[in-house]
Write a structure and sequence with these properties.
single chain; about 400 residues; alpha+beta; Helicase, Ruva Protein, domain 3; elongated
Length: about 400
């Protein structure tokens, strides 16, 4: 009789683990709490699913893990991004590589990745049971022997894989259940905290710009305690009712591992392609062209209209002042604000809004060569439930696929 494997969680890590185990001829059942598996994958990459990052070296991957990157060396070595890409293309999902080596389906539809992964798991021989919420592990003499569901059903197993995700986006099923299960087996859980999350700002003007998206801006995060540059990036961002969001902001948040109110400042360069001197030349031309307009109406070719009052206020320039009355000193102040639009980081949004969760099951208690618990025989972990998280760019999904594959090939 084939060994029985229970996989708790039908996300990227859980489905990969199940498929790999089933391909070995094992009797595999996935228990998914939602009505549909892989709901969180549906919202990744703004609904496009940034499925992996086209790195070719293990070190390139581990460098994208803020903490515990070395723990993933074995998993990445056995399942690289090109393995992920080969898998999905073999499943009939053409992929493309975009800026920063980010990999997406050609269709730009996350559902194509999800459907392919679910199909692959089932065709490999695994069963996927939905709306099954695991209440506890069944333990005997310190080893796992199955699981008990909230509805009273018991599933016996020779091995159990916990792939429940973290506690971000709980509506997708990532509710932190796996942490309680891990503690049952004696594991240490590093307190979860948000990573890849929008930032709240102190200044009111960010909320005044709510809904404004900026492309091709540069941001720098400074630590005001020692005036050290923490992070620098270039790309897209968004102003919201609470502060700032968007790709470059989410990446920045992962680099601030100890956010405390008002310690960090965000500086936005609205015109990174122009040096201060070139920007001043541009201002001279625009202000000369619209010399008989008020400043409120003289900057429409340079800035989005909603941003003009904010920039003028920060530069202490009256919006009703005519362009031909602007002094050289005022123009220099305006140029400085355009290159250094600065706000104070008050904190992060709630952890439920994080794309991924930092923290989780302590890596020192997991065998990095197999993903098996060092404390509880027969228990394995995969994906975000482990204390590993990465920067944006497809790295977090690659962690899920790699650790899932490793657990599925060893359980």
């Amino acid at each position: 009789m084939a060994q029985k494997i229970i996989v708790i969680g039908g996300g990227a890590a859980g489905l990969t683990a199940a498929a790999m185990a089933a391909r070995r001829g094992l009797d595999v059942t996935v228990l998914e709490r939602n009505a549909r598996p892989a709901r969180k994958m549906m919202i990744t990459g703004k609904g496009r699913c940034n499925v992996t990052n086209a790195c070719t070296l293990v070190n390139e991957l581990t460098e994208q893990i803020p903490g515990n990157g070395r723990f993933l060396y074995g998993a990445f070595s056995r399942f690289m991004p090109y393995d992920t890409m080969d898998l999905f293309e073999s499943l009939g999902v053409p992929l493309k590589i975009e800026r920063g080596n980010r990999v997406f389906p050609v269709s730009d539809k996350a559902v194509d990745i999800v459907d392919a992964l679910v199909r692959f798991t089932r065709r490999s021989g695994a069963r996927i049971l939905t709306e099954q919420r695991v209440a506890s592990l069944l333990l005997e003499d310190g080893a796992v022997k199955g699981v008990l569901c909230e509805d009273g059903r018991r599933y016996a197993a020779d091995a159990v894989v916990i792939a429940t995700g973290g506690c971000s986006y709980p509506l997708t099923g990532s509710t932190g259940d796996g942490y309680a299960l891990a503690r049952e087996a004696g594991h240490t859980v590093v307190p979860p905290k948000p990573s890849l999350i929008p930032l709240e700002t102190r200044e009111r003007w960010c909320a005044d710009l709510q809904g404004l998206a900026l492309k091709n801006v540069a941001i720098t995060v400074w630590d005001s305690e020692n005036y050290r540059e923490v992070y620098h990036d270039f790309g897209e961002m968004l102003f919201t009712h609470f502060g700032v969001s968007g790709p470059v902001i989410l990446s920045a948040s992962a680099h601030i591992r100890d956010i405390t109110p008002d310690r960090y400042r965000l500086s936005i360069d609205l015109k990174p392609a122009l040096s201060p001197e070139k920007l001043d030349d541009r201002l001279v031309r625009d202000l000369s062209k619209y010399s008989n307009r008020t400043m409120q109406n003289a900057l429409t070719e340079l800035l989005p209209r909603s941003m003009i009052p904010v920039v003028l206020s920060l530069a202490e320039i009256p919006p009703e002042l005519f362009a031909n009355r602007l002094t050289r000193e005022m123009r220099h102040d305006l140029g400085y604000v355009l290159k250094n639009l600065t706000c104070t980081i008050a904190g992060t949004r709630p952890i439920e809004e994080a794309i991924v969760t930092a923290g989780g099951v302590a890596t020192r208690e997991i065998d990095p060569k197999t993903m098996q618990s060092k404390l509880c025989p027969g228990l394995y972990f995969a994906g975000e439930v482990i204390d590993v998280d990465a920067y944006t760019g497809g790295f977090n999904l690659q962690i899920a696929f790699a650790t899932g594959a490793l657990a599925g090939n060893n359980c």
